[in-house]
Design brief:
single chain; mainly beta; four-stranded antiparallel β-sheet; two-stranded antiparallel ribbon; 1 helix; 7% helix; globular
Length: 101
């Protein structure tokens, strides 16, 4: 379908592999105390019980880790994870999700 997602991701996210669509991940910003944090929301296919979802973050696109990330919600249909490093103008941060079968 030329949307750039593998069939494994289409299966894990519950999107149609024959239909061209945008990435279903949602990135937003959340405030906790005085700080602002990046957050990712991942749709989960409740029928995909044979996959695992791992959210990772880093500041350099090389050293990805899930250590310290805050899992705000983890249900059969959604995973929402917040970064543990506050957003700032001086330090870039990146988040991604890995799906394993």
């Amino acid at each position: 379908d030329h949307d750039g997602q593998s069939n494994l991701l289409e299966y894990a996210f519950g999107t149609a592999p024959q239909t061209n669509g945008s990435a279903p991940l949602v990135y937003d910003e959340v405030t906790s105390g005085p700080s602002h944090y990046m957050r990712i929301t991942v749709p989960k296919n409740p029928a995909a019980t044979d996959v695992t979802y791992v959210v990772e973050a880093c500041g350099d696109l090389l050293n990805w880790s899930s250590v310290g990330l805050v899992i705000e919600s983890d249900t059969s249909t959604q995973l929402r994870v917040r970064d543990n490093v506050p957003m700032s103008n001086s330090t870039p941060r990146f988040m991604r999700v890995r799906v394993n079968r």
